[in-house]
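User: Please predict the structure of the protein below. I'd like the answer in structure-token form so I can feed it into my own downstream comparison script.

Assistant: Understood. Taking the following sequence of 78 residues as input:
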Amino acid sequence: MIEILAQFNFTERDGDFIIWNKNQSVNVGQSLSMKATVQTRRYDGKIGVIITKAVACCALRQSGDGKPLTVDQNRRGF
């Protein structure tokens, strides 16, 4: 795995996390859009990335009074 990743570069473009090499470029947020959210930020010349798994829609249930439950994802941003 390390050898494979060594062939790629990691960067941030317009708030998106991009993995690229001379042959291809992948926007990680777009690639994972149905499965996760991707937050990317530059600071002190470094790139910070937080990938948060999406909550499955089928895991949501209604409460006993028929009202939908709310989901608190406790998401921590930058």
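That's the full token string. The mean pLDDT is 77.
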